[in-house]
Design brief:
By secondary structure, this protein is of the alpha/beta class. It is 41% helix and 18% strand. The longest helix is centred in the middle third of the chain and has 25 residues. The chain starts with 8 loop residues before the first strand and ends with a helix. 48% of the residues are buried. The structure holds phosphoenolpyruvate and magnesium ion.
Length: 949
């Protein structure tokens, strides 16, 4: 064991150079019988390889491996150099400890020093020390005196590299550290800590960072083993805890054992130290909690967890200790679900901020209580869960319906592909060529798929994917990684993963769901690079079950063969769901991880309307479903054949049916699907995805395209409805705690009237003599209405559009309650039931956990619709419905009964909506509506409709 006594320290030495210091130490060690002649040369050789400067004015020169035979007796000698000696790279040493050790005994010293190095003023105190006792005291530091922490982070630990050369490890570590060129140069001289562990250190002015890489097999560098490299870019002393923790393992002689651990296990081991299992493992700002929900952390409990996390200021990160180890923001649902938490998995939460402790306590308690779900037991021996609620035969599982229709058939469960590739490569140029050729091949494949795709949306998505393939940021990032020695697949996937993770963190659910597009294109290129074919489904028809499907997979799927689509994750607004609707494939999303446990071949009934999956149905259930499916098919065919006929009830009452559009280019297709006009043009599409506001001529072109395709049919244009959850990149808006209750829609336009004025000018001009109806979103108060109406009148006084009406959306309860006043001035109302429902029931429309509550058929919402209709009709004005409720076939008789004059729905739904109206009788609908208004809740209303039809 190395120990330092007062006799081993010579105070107040003055020496001119590092070489002189080393020579003096070597002589002293030789005189005391610690080493044989020649050891000094070995110490100098070590310095030539790597600097032994530790930090805080301390250096620890020792001989290279090849001169260990010269060590006769372990020992240490220290020279105190108050004037300092230049130790290279601008560092000055005030205390130099010459070490003679035949094995790794110097590590105990290193461990002690690592603790001492945590003191900010150590260098200065060493310099000013007068007695050798002072030095010994300074090197003894209490356990409690820890400097601020730099944590082991799973994202910056990469284990099991195929490469074993030290310089390759350095490149990999530099890549993880994201070093700049200057830092990279400073990292070039690693210090061998022992047992194959190396340390590279550089000073940074930026945030301190760590990176740790380990090898799959042991390598060698100048006679020393190579197993792992810890690289640090540090400014202060926050990293010293890491060194102490690592040194603890090396002192315990467990360096090799440690280096052999996989990512997450390695991080945990380092944090815990080489202690027996069960001992304290976590820092104060961490908690480990076991998830015992029977389907793991799927959408509903996940949403509850995220809501809870968002109530705290603290930054909260979480990783699945039983997953792939990456850490995510606990306030992002997409990321949380992406952790793939199954029953029995352990989550490690880390929180930082004033209320971190409270946040951790509450999160832990909420998970223990089941996040609103029943819990299942975890066995002590295995740590796994008895899956008491694995999907049994003849069971119905609920999810979110994303595309209507019934599909019956065997499932094909797609298990995710894994790609095998080396992280590092020797020839950067060859790797660049490899990546370029894979990108070209992927582009060719996409072009071919686009040429064959029938649906315009499919073509658009494939075009967007081709754009992604040549995205400069993606290519630049991958290029930089290639230059640092990464292999083509490693470089490509690292960039894809980072871009998708960033996208998934977007507060806007629609944008967040685009992460699937990025990963989708990423996988396509990986399949080419790794020569790993993507899974191929069976030749016979099947219901496709997957964790999540990429849009290009949906585009490529053979609609003849894919009967239906079921995803464990995803959301109804993901591209996959939109495409499934376009292709007419019934789909369910957000089903939870349990569906991945189904066996390929298991028969199911998928009901995209009801949002249910019936697994291994009993023969009588199957027979009923087949009969219903046949009926629905027949109805759909009849409805399509009559799509251009008006929607008239049996007793002769007509309901107008328009199309909801977010893109003017889809107008002609909507007319072809039977639209009698556009009932809602969400004009945000004209304003988003630009770097500045569109001018009059740009807007004119968009609106004229819609009017041209409508050929005299009316167009209801809703003016700009952005802000809140739909931000505009070119319009900086302050962060809001409750964006849905924030500055959005007409509120935002009041702050920028010129924007609304330009839009009104473009709309009125584009209309010419065709019928144009203009409405304003989110009107909650009289002043907002007056502002909009007056602005409209000013513009109209200039343009004199001949066929125009001006109205407003009713989507805030105050507008419905105050409808009698608004109806005096508004020419029409269009009820936005999506928002009206969320505001009436105080249930966030994007929150899957509240899906059952936010039902537009709630009697409270129906009452507001009735008040709006009555107020409008009293003034001779008309009322439309442009929210999703208009597409709900159960809602239609009630909307007719309440007196609604028009519904506007997604184009694909028009034929069925018209067909449903033709089945109704207005007098009976009125009676039904009266009973619905008196019902207890939405379930009771639905039951009422069910029994009456
Ligand atoms: C609504 O709120 O019902 C509506 C049609 O508007 P959006 O869905 O665009 O908010
Ligand atoms: Mg709305």
């Amino acid at each position: 064991m190395l120990s330092l006594t007062p006799q081993d320290v010579r105070m107040g030495q003055v020496l001119a150079s590092k070489e002189a210091v080393i020579s003096a130490l070597a002589d002293w060690l030789e005189q005391d019988g610690n080493v044989a002649p020649g050891y000094g040369a070995g110490m100098l050789a070590r310095e030539a390889q790597t600097s032994t400067y530790l930090g805080q004015g301390i250096a620890i020169p020792h001989g290279i491996q090849a001169c260990r035979h010269l060590v006769k007796k372990t020992g240490i000698k220290a020279l105190h150099l108050p004037e300092g000696v230049d130790w290279g790279e601008g560092e000055k040493a005030y205390l130099v400890l010459g070490i003679a050790a035949g094995s790794d005994e110097h590590l105990e010293l290193l461990r002690r020093l690592a603790r001492a190095l945590g003191r900010d003023d150590l260098a200065e105190r060493v310099r000013q020390a007068r007695h050798s006792d002072d030095i010994l005291r300074l090197l003894r530091v209490d356990e409690g005196e820890e400097a601020p922490l730099l944590e082991w982070r799973a994202e910056t630990i990469r284990t099991g590299l195929k490469a074993t050369a030290l310089d390759e490890l350095q490149r990999a570590a530099a890549d993880l550290l994201r070093t700049n060129e200057q830092e990279l140069a400073a990292l070039q001289s690693p210090l061998h800590l022992g047992q194959g562990w190396w340390l590279s250190q550089t000073v940074t002015e930026g945030k301190p960072r760590m990176a740790l890489v380990t090898t799959m097999a042991e390598g060698e560098h100048h006679g020393q083993p190579v197993r792992a490299l810890l690289a640090l870019a540090v400014s202060g002393n926050g990293h010293k805890r890491l060194l102490v923790q690592l040194a603890d393992w090396l002192v315990a002689g467990k360096g090799a054992e440690l280096a052999a651990l996989a990512g997450e296990a390695l991080q945990r081991a380092l944090t815990r130290g080489p202690v027996a299992p069960g001992e304290q493992a976590l820092t104060a700002n961490q908690r480990v909690v076991t998830v015992r929900n029977h389907q793991g952390l799927h959408a509903r409990p996940g949403a509850m967890l995220v809501q809870l996390a968002r109530q705290f200021e603290a930054e909260i990160r979480v990783r699945n200790l039983d997953g792939d180890g990456h850490e995510v923001n606990a306030k992002s649902l997409m990321k949380l679900i992406g952790l793939g938490v199954r029953p029995g998995h352990q989550l490690l939460f880390t929180a930082n901020g004033a209320d971190a402790d409270e946040a951790l306590t509450q999160l832990q308690a909420a998970i223990h209580e089941g996040l609103g779900e029943e819990l299942v037991p975890v066995t002590a021996e295995t740590g796994t869960v008895h899956r008491v609620q694995d999907i049994a035969a003849n069971t119905q599982v609920h999810g979110v319906g994303a595309s209507p229709g019934i599909a019956i058939g065997p499932v094909y469960v797609e298990t995710p592909v894994t790609f095998d590739y080396a992280d590092m490569a020797c020839n950067a140029e060859a790797e660049r060529e490899r990546l370029n050729s894979a990108l070209e091949q992927a582009d060719r494949e996409l072009a071919e798929a686009a040429a064959e795709a029938a649906a315009p949306q499919a073509r658009d998505i494939l075009a967007m994917h081709r754009e992604l393939l040549s995205d400069p940021a993606l290519l630049e990032g991958a290029g930089a990684r290639l230059r640092r020695g990464a292999s083509a697949p490693a470089a490509w996937w690292a960039e894809i993963d980072a871009a998708a993770t960033e996208q998934a963190a977007s507060a806007n659910a629609l944008l967040a769901e685009r992460a699937a597009d990025i990963r989708d294109i990423g996988r396509r290129v990986m399949a080419i690079l790794c020569n790993t074919p993507l899974p191929s489904p069976p030749d016979t028809p099947y219901v496709w079950v997957a964790e999540d499907t990429g849009p290009s997979e949906v585009v490529n799927m053979n609609a003849e063969r894919v009967l239906g689509l079921v995803t464990a994750g995803g959301g109804p607004s993901s591209h996959s769901a939109i495409l499934a609707r376009t292709l007419g494939i019934p789909a369910l999303v957000a089903m939870g991880g349990a569906v991945m446990g189904l066996k390929t071949g298991t028969p199911v009934i998928l009901d995209g309307e009801a949002g249910t999956l019936h697994v291994a149905p009993a023969p009588e259930v199957l027979a009923r479903a087949r009969a219903q499916q046949a009926r629905e098919r027949q109805l759909a065919e009849q409805a399509w054949a009559q799509r251009h006929q008006p929607a008239v009830t049996r007793d002769g009452h007509r309901l107008e049916v328009g199309a909801n559009l977010g893109d003017t280019a889809a107008t002609a297709a909507a007319v072809e699907a039977g639209a009698e006009g556009v009932g809602l043009l969400r004009t945000e599409c004209v304003f988003m995805g630009r770097s500045r506001a569109p001018d009059v001529s740009q807007q004119l072109a968009e609106y004229q395209a819609a009017f041209a395709a409508l050929k005299g049919r009316p167009l209801v244009a809703r003016t700009l409805d952005v802000g809140g959850d739909k931000p505009l990149s070119w319009w900086p808006a302050p962060r809001e705690d409750n964006p849905f209750l924030g500055v959005r829609g007409i509120r935002l336009c009041r702050q920028q009237p010129e924007l609304l004025e330009t839009q009104l000018r473009a709309l009125l001009t584009a209309a010419g003599d065709q019928p144009v109806r203009i409405m304003f979103p989110m009107v909650a108060d009289w002043a907002e209405w007056r502002f909009a109406r007056e602005l409209f009148e000013r513009v109209q006084a200039d343009i004199h559009a001949p066929n125009v009406q001006v109205g407003m959306m009713v989507e805030v309860p105050s507008a419905a309650l105050h409808a009698p006043q608004f109806a005096k001035e508004a020419d029409f109302f269009s009820i936005g039931t999506n928002d009206l429902t969320q505001y009436t029931l105080a249930a966030d429309r994007g929150n899957g956990a509240l899906a059952a509550l936010s039902d537009g058929l709630h009697p409270a919402v129906l009452k507001l619709i009735a008040m709006t209709v009555d107020a409008a009709h009293a003034e001779g004005k008309w009322v439309g419905i442009c929210g999703e409720l208009g597409s709900d076939l159960q809602a239609l008789p009630l909307l007719l009964g309440l007196g609604v004059d028009e519904v506007s729905v997604s184009p694909g739904r028009i034929p069925m909506v018209k067909a449903r109206v033709r089945e109704c009788n207005l007098a009976r609908c009125r009676a039904l509506a009266g009973r619905a208004l008196a019902a207890r809740d939405a379930r009771a209303v639905r039951a009422l409709v069910e029994t009456s039809s």
